[in-house]
């Protein structure tokens, strides 16, 4: 029994290291590489980055202008982990802009070039996200900055749990091969989000199936790029909901 527990613990540590190595810039090289188990640890990775953003923000809030600090926090987040998902968002925008068949859209997702519409979408996406994060800094809404990375990954995992792969290769298939009960367990991390921001959290859980239906209709299922786009859009929508709430005096 002791050896079984040790083996289980070793596998989980390798899975955690695999998630950190694949979804962030931490220089880990786990052997063996186990991303199927590793996706289970995405919420934990999100909490670590959320805590980093929280710490940097509260440490520098009296030293930097809210606009400058907001830009710094967003840069840290994208450099550390969100660059990976942002790439999927831009590819998705390019593919959706093309009036072509599903198979052609899937091909466009794999091309390395960025189209004009994808570039413009990415520019205005980052601009509005920066303005919302700067607003959170100005209003000292540090828990929102802490939870943003977690919310995006929870919606991504929810969509992954409910969806099916669009093709029999690539990251989307590897992600979706993860044991479904492990993906479902990650949804327990919604508890702190519901405690602090119940309405935005409920809205995002309801939005997840709608986003999945959009991917099914336009791409025939899920891919790694679409999962990345899901994560980015969920963070943006969560931020928008909180910004509107600030305007209404809700937070």
What structural class results from the helix and strand content? mainly alpha
Largest sheet: none
- Total DSSP E strands: 0
Oligomerization: single chain
The number of distinct helices, counting runs of at least 4 residues, comes to 12
Strand content: under 5%
Number of domains: 1
Distance, first to last CA: 50 Å
Q: What's the gyration radius in Å?
A: 18 Å
Task: Show unreliable segments.
Answer: none
What best-fitting shape do the alpha-carbon axes yield? globular
Average pLDDT rating: 87
**N-to-C SSE string, H for helix and E for strand:** HHHHHHHHHHHH
- As a percent range, the share of helical residues equals over 70%
Helix and strand layout, with pairings?
Elements: H1 2-23, H2 35-38, H3 42-60, H4 66-97, H5 102-110, H6 116-138, H7 142-162, H8 170-176, H9 180-185, H10 190-196, H11 198-219, H12 224-248
Helix pairs in contact: 3-4, 3-7, 4-5, 4-6, 4-12, 6-12, 7-11, 7-12, 8-12, 10-11, 11-12
């Amino acid at each position: 029994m002791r050896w079984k527990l040790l083996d289980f613990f070793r596998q989980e540590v390798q899975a955690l290291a695999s998630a950190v190595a694949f979804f962030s810039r931490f220089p880990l090289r786990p052997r063996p590489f186990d991303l199927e188990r590793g996706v289970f640890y995405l919420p934990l990775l999100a909490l670590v980055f959320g805590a980093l953003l929280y710490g940097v923000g509260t440490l520098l809030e009296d030293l930097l202008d809210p606009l400058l600090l907001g830009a710094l926090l967003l840069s840290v987040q994208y450099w550390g982990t969100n660059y990976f998902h942002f790439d999927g968002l831009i590819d998705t925008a390019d593919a959706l802009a093309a009036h072509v068949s599903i198979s052609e859209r899937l091909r466009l997702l794999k091309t390395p070039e960025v189209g004009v519409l994808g570039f413009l979408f990415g520019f205005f996406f980052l601009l509005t996200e920066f303005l919302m994060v700067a607003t959170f800094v100005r209003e000292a809404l540090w828990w929102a900055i802490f939870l943003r990375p977690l919310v995006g990954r929870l919606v991504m995992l929810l969509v992954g749990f409910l969806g099916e792969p669009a093709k029999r290769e690539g990251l989307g298939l590897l992600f979706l091969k993860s044991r479904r009960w492990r993906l479902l367990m990650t949804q327990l991390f919604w508890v702190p989000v519901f405690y602090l921001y119940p309405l935005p959290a409920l809205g995002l859980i309801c939005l997840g199936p709608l986003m999945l239906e959009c991917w099914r209709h336009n791409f025939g299922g899920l891919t790694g790029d679409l999962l990345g786009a899901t994560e980015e859009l969920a963070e943006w929508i969560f931020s928008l909901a909180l910004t509107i709430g600030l305007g209404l005096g809700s937070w």
